[in-house]
Write a structure and sequence with these properties.
The structure holds two protein chains of two kinds.
Chain A: E1 2-9, H1 22-34, E2 38-43, E3 51-55, E4 61-65, E5 75-83, H2 87-96, E6 105-110
Antiparallel strand pairs in A: 1-5, 1-6, 2-5, 3-4
Chain B: H1 3-26, H2 29-50, H3 56-74, H4 76-92, H5 108-115, H6 122-132, H7 138-144, H8 149-165, H9 178-197, H10 208-224, H11 229-242, H12 245-248, H13 268-282, H14 289-302, H15 311-324, H16 328-342, H17 344-353, H18 358-361, H19 364-376, H20 380-393, H21 397-411
Helix pairs in contact in B: 1-2, 1-3, 1-5, 2-3, 6-8, 6-9, 7-8, 9-10, 9-11, 10-11, 11-13, 11-14, 13-14, 14-15, 15-16, 16-17, 17-19, 19-20, 20-21
InterPro entries (chain A): Dimeric_a/b-barrel, YCII
Pfam families (chain A): YCII (PF03795)
Family (chain A): Belongs to the YciI family.
Amino acid sequence: MKYMLLINSAPTGADTADACTFEDWQVYDKSVKEAGILVDGHSLADLTTATTVRVAPDGERTVATDGPFAETREVLGGYYVIDVPDLDVALDWAARCPGARGGGSVVVRPVADFEG
Amino acid sequence: MDGRAAVEAVFREEQGRLLASLVRRFGDLDLAEEVTADAIETALVRWPVDGIPPKPGAWLLTTARRKAVDRLRRDKAHAARLALLQVEVDRAAPAPAAEPGADLPDERLLLFFTCAHPALPSEDRIALTLRCLAGLSTPEVARALLVSTETMAKRIVRAKHKIRTARIPFRVPTPGELPGRLPGVLQVIYSIFTEGYAASSGPDLQRLDVAEEALRLARVLHRLLPAEREVAGLLALMLLVHARREARTGPDGDPVLLADQDRSRWDRTMIEEGRALVKPALTGGAPGRYAVQAAIAALHDEAADLTTTDWPQIVALYDVLLAIVPSPVVALNRAAAIAMRDGPRAGLALLDELAGEPRLRDYHPYHAARADLLARLGRRAEAATAYRRALELAGTEPERRHLRRELGSMEG
């Protein structure tokens, strides 16, 4: 069963006293790989580099940057897709993720299965 | 007893066990529910003719399993998916043996934990527990929780969809996980109880059948987890409160305050059963919230009247409770106990300190308690103002009638 862990960074100004270090991420990333559950995963470049595309009913394309960047909301900073037996196991991996600490959060979404 | 009633009586007792056994075996709540219903229908036809079998539970399980296998033969893709799941389930939790005297092993614990899973919204946990473990139909669950059948049907479909799609497992937490997961199960049972005990809205103050479903669930859970002290504490608390049910409302359905209750109408048998559970619930390490609340309820139940109640001990227990559950509602109850121990002025001073709490601003018992203390101090105009505020906020008609009477005596 595949789950995506969507890692949201803490909004600026949140209490980041127990924020994690780069080493925490390395340790976590290594443990996900060594557990043999990793399907895919990336961290995303910062939000100032994001570009939004919308296509209107008449086919007209608008391209926008997602600014201004107040950073008072949670922002998707990266994701993992893991393959584990059930939601309890997925929630355990989410809880171990450094992104769940220091005011951040990890949203666990099952990947849709169109074969069942 | 006619055939159908006899069969339904057996079914009521066995339904939860049957469902739990089938869920564990097939890992699919919908399939388990369907074949449970099928097996019951078959029993309704066969038993009045053939007689009730010597092991009705085992008969129902065998019949339901055959029906499940039939269905899976017709739906190969579903079967393949379930078979894969089942390997994991069997590895995680080997089936327990039936205890002596029962003809089905009791696997209901896994249903308790799945129905109360933290990944489900709390209203869905209550609905699922009533349906899967109390054996209520969807319209009955809807009536119990005062929502329309249509709303409840949607809620149950949504909850089952999440269990299936997000694959919330059917399993009993490991001993290491239990301290994190058991409070959620207890919360569901206690919410069902309080919904029945003090209906949050509607024409009646108490809906005893709902409270009794909660008691039944707590008894089952206590039987399944006899060493868990908070389970004993919750069962004790509910027994010690439910023992006062006959005295809690007047002939017109209006609430009767503890001070005015006819204590001869309290259920002594239930009080004794509850008291016997308080001691083990409190013994062996720091007590939990339900054990402490049960101890407070026991002190009330043991007292002949309000003045001979052991208020110093009750205040001491509220101090312990406030340390476990630092909630303004507990602080409110503690203030009321201090008013009984040290007089209304001391209680009022504490209540006024709580005036800024957002959770108490719209909580009618806070304003009613304040009004009562003001009245006892002879500050009638302020008492009337507080009663008016409580009246604006009270949810049930009997509560409003009671508050109107109190308000009338302040203004008269």
